[in-house]
Amino acid sequence: MPLSKVIVVGAGPSGLLLTILLAKAGIPVELLEMTRALDTNPRASHYADSSCREFERAGVLDALIARGFFPNGVSWRKMDEDRTRIVRLINAHPDESDRYRMVCLPLDQLGILLETELKTLPNATVKYHHKVVALHDDPDKPQVTLDVETPDGSVQQFSADYVVGCDGGNSTMRKLLFGASVFPGFTWDKQIVATNMYYDFDKYGYDDSQFFVHPEHWHMVAKIQADGLTRLTYGEVGGLTHEELLARMPQKYATLLPGDNVTPDQWKVVNFSPYRVHQRCVDKMRVGRVLLAADAAHLCNPFGGMGLTGGIADIGSLYDSLAGIHQGKADDSILDIYCRERRRIWHDQINPISSVNMERLFSIDADEIVEKDPFIAMVRKMERGELPPPPPGTKSPTEALMYDMTQHYTD
After folding, report:
1. What is the DSSP string of 90-144?
2. What secondary structure does DSSP assign to 187-212, as a single string?
3. Which of 152, 233, 250, 386 lies at a C-alpha separation of 20 to 30 Å from 374?
4. Which of 316, 319, 313 lies closest to 300 in space, CA to CA?
5. Closest CA to 334 of 296, 283, 294, 286
6. Can you give the C-alpha Rg of the chain in angstroms?
């Protein structure tokens, strides 16, 4: 039987993307967002080939390419006076005709593109300032029901065949399912500060993206917009307040930025956002008719983009699962497979790879990293042409995060 309605909670990139995909499959969708507008905080901005394939399905890839830019690769550097490059990994898709090569655009601008597309779909609605406060999933009733606090302060009930929590790392849906304190995993003792800023990095020979290896001043510098807007994300000691971190920022910038006698008049900060870093994953991404995806289900540190890329891969798998049910090609049990396979990918790939990506920046001496880090040693060999090219048809690392749910269709 076709689905009568799906409710998506959370208007971040994952929630917006899922809403668009479901609506284009003919499924009525209601998107509930507790805030009054889209989030504008500094967040992810690099979209891998696997993510671009999902944006293509949603019909927004052309707009993303038109506004974004294609980075030339990523490097790892020392924190010496010359910011010496250790190794460089060239973009895996240098062919300009490749629609799915990595593209960059600040996440808040991607949100605008997705929201614009969503508004063209007659069977999709987004309701801002709607906060979910309770969940009722009685197996004896035909639909799952949410109690939702509306803009006028009243609480109304919204019902659907399925509810999907895409409401981020502080997910209300996850807390309603498992409790406020249940989110298996750990929190790093280090803190991260993400800033969007302008500075003349080209003057010092910086690449579009680079990581700096240092026990104290480890950080990332990545161009995220064609006009030179740059994401500078750096590590800090844990336990500091927002005000303390903000007060420390000028001195951190003076240390991290290249050049002599760097002063505040030489840079411009657009956004400042400190946050704690977690490696966590729920034990279940499906409970009855309630599903979790992306940051609501799992978290990892941002170095390497595994969180955003893994979250979008969740959406692709979940969309195919729900569309299969809607079209009569799969039964409800496909959602259990979604839960199993997405958790497996997090535990087997996203968690270990992202953890090593972060530890690499502060746990190995920059002068010894080529000898001690197998990945950096491999990149060095690739630079020197000492490794054969991958055979045709080899999946990219991010494509390996995807899982094709259509193989479980029964029709």
Report:
1. E-S---TT-TTS-EE--HHHHHHHHHHHHTT-TTEEEEES-EEEEEE--TTSSSE
2. EEEEEEEEEEEE---GGGT--SEEEE
3. 233
4. 313
5. 286
6. 22
Tens digit of each residue's pLDDT (9 = 90 or more) over 371-381: 999 999 999 99
CA dihedral 95→45→192→241, nearest 10 degrees, is 170
- The whole-model pTM stands at 0.94
CA angle, residues 341, 55, 94, in degrees to nearest 5: 100
- pLDDT tens per residue, range 88-103: 998 654 455 578 888 9
Cα(first)–Cα(last) distance of the chain, in Å?
14
Comparing CA positions, the residue from 160, 177, 163, 180 lying closest to residue 291 is: 163
Contacts of 355 (CB under 8 A, 6+ apart): 279, 300, 301
Helix (H) or strand (E) holding 355: helix 351-363
Q: Measured on CA atoms in the order 252, 79, 270, 298, is the torsion positive or negative?
A: negative
- Nearest alpha-carbon partner for 271 in 98, 86, 109: 109
Cα separation, 408 vs 411, in Å, equals 9
> Distance between CA 334 and CA 361 in Å, rounded?
40
Span 96-154, pLDDT tens digits:
557 888 899 988 899 999 999 999 999 999 999 999 999 999 999 999 999 999 999 99
Q: Which residues contact 42 (CB under 8 A, 6 or more apart)?
A: 106, 194, 195, 196, 231, 233, 271, 272, 273
**Secondary structure of 148-182 in HEC code, one letter for each residue:** EECCCCCEEEEEECEEEECCCCCCHHHHHHHCCCC
3 has which bridge partners?
none
What domains, with CATH codes, occur in the chain? 6-71+101-184+279-359+396-408 (3.50.50.60)
pLDDT of the residue at 96: 54
For residues 186 and 301, is the Cβ–Cβ distance under 8 A?
A: no
Residue-level pLDDT at 39: 78
The amino acid that residue 162 corresponds to is: Y
Contact 366, 217 (CB under 8 A): no
Q: What is the pLDDT of residues 247-283, one digit of tens each?
A: 999 999 999 999 998 999 999 999 999 989 999 999 9
